[in-house]
Amino acid sequence: MDAEAKNTEGAPEAWRDITPDAARRLMTAAVHAFAERGYHATTTRDIAGRAGMSPAALYIHYKTKEELLYQISKVGHRLALDILEAARDGAGTPAERLAEAVRAFVRWHAEHHTTARVVQYELDALAEDHYAEITALRRASDGAVRAIVEDGVKAGDFDVADVRGTTVAVLSLCIDVARWFNARGRSTPDEVGELYAGLALRMVGAAG
Q: What would the pLDDT profile of 64-81 be if each residue is shown by its tens digit?
């Protein structure tokens, strides 16, 4: 069993505000079902069974399967935004703040790779209004990193010809960790975070 699944996938952190306990169990079950089978191949019966509940019990807490995906996406994207905004607003040079943003963002995607895969790669299954809300959070995350890069350019610390494109490249590099990270692999989340922080600094032409 995946180490993330063994620990009920960060439930005390990511889902701590989800109440009651049954709703939280359903969300955790949905994360693993969506990550394993994909959103469209997962049924409400699959989710309820993983949570040790009946399919009818699921509808007490979530009207549809899509609402479950939306709640997962919203929690994940808000956590990501908090990480990036904290780095943007933190102390230090632009290089130090960019390194911290990437380090923390990558570490979260590695430590919570099952959730992150669902959060990052099942967006197209969201209803139109939910999709709009989540993409707004993604734009805010992009904006937080872009602000750090812009600060570095203005200070003369970064050599970046295309701030917007470079920001997208940095974020894409971080997000992709969720796709390949293996908790039983050779690298820890902290080690991957450090590696990617160095890569990001080289991408913006800063001394690493």
A: 999 999 999 999 999 999
